[in-house]
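Worked Example 4.2. Consider the chain below.
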Amino acid sequence: MSDVKAPAAPDLSGWSCPLPLRDHPRVVMGHGGGGAMSAELVEHIFVPAFGGQTLTDLGDSATLTLGGARLAFSTDSFVVRPLFFPGGSIGDLAVHGTVNDLAMSGARAAYLSCGFILEEGVETELVGRVARALGAAARAAGVEVVTGDTKVVEAGHGDGIYINTSGIGLIPPGVDIRPQRAQPGDVVIVSGEIGLHGVAIMSVREGLEFGVEVQSDCAALGGLVEAMLAVTPDLHVLRDPTRGGLAASLNEIATAAGVGVRIQERAVPVPPQVANACAILGLDPMYVANEGKLVAFVPREHADAVLAAMRAHPLGASASVIGECLTEHPGMVVARTAFGGTRVVDLPLGEQLPRIC
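Applying the procedure from the previous section yields the following C-alpha cells:
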C-alpha cells in the first residue's frame, strides 16, 4: 500500500471574500470572473489539491527549467459568447490569450496545443470558420499548433464551441519578469486604451449601440514585449489585464510584491466610446476586460526609454505612464482623482460581464 495521503478537504472557515464563498455550496458565475471569488477558489481548492511551489507563484505562465533552458508554459480555456465579435473571434482569443500569457514572462511563444469541445448539433461550417480564424491568428503570431484534441458533448450540455490552448516558449537569458519583482519607485505604464474588448462583447451580446462600433483590442503582444526587452531585460513585471480589467491586474501585483500602487486617474487612457458606454451602463472602465493590452512595472531609470520603444510599436502607440509603486499602503491600489481626492481601487469580486474570453 502507498504511504501517499490524499490532500485534506479544503477548510472553508478561513475564506474571507466579501461574499463568503463558504456560503456557496455550488459554483456561481462570479467564480470565473478573475476577481476575489476566482482567487479564493484557486487558493483554497486547487493550489492545496495540486501542490508545488511553481503553481503557488500563480503567474500568467509557469517558468520552468528543462535541460538547461528556461521555458514558459501556460494554458487557458475560452468560452466567449458570441463566437464572433467586432475585432475578433473565439479562435483569435484562443491564440492571443495563451501567446500573451507567455509574453508576460518575457517568453516568445513557439508551440501551441489546441483542444476543441463541440456541442452536438453545432454547424460544421461554423467549426471550420473558427478553426480557420485560429490557424490564421497562430501564423500571424509566429506560433505553430502542433497537437490537439476534439471532444463532442450532448446537445444542451455545451454552448456550441469551447476551446483550450496550451503554449510553451523560451525565456531569453537575463530576463526575470514576475509580479513579486515590483519595487517602490517603479513606474507603471499601460500600453494603450483600456476597456475595448469588454465593451465590444457587451455591445454585440446585448444589442447595444453607442453611436460607433466598438472593436475589440484582441492582439498578440509578443512583438511589443520584444521591443521593450530590446531596451532593457530588467523589466520587473508585465501583466495583460484580461478578466477583472486593469484594476484586477494592479491589485494582484501589489499583493504579490507587498507594495503599494498609486495611479493618476486622468492618466489612464480610456477611449471616448468606452467611457460613454460605461457611463450609460454604470460600469468602471478600470474593471472592463482587455485582450490586447499590457501593464508594465519598469525601473524608473529605464522608464522613458521603454515608453518610447512602446510608442514606436503599433500595439503601444498610445502607451502612457499612469502611476508608480510605493512603500506606503502595501498590497493596496489607490487612484488620485481628477478632483484631487484619493480612492481605493479594490480587487473586483467577480466579473461585470461573464464569458468575455
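Residues 19 and 233 are 41 Å apart (CA to CA). The chain has a mean pLDDT of 89. Compare this with Example 4.1 before moving on.
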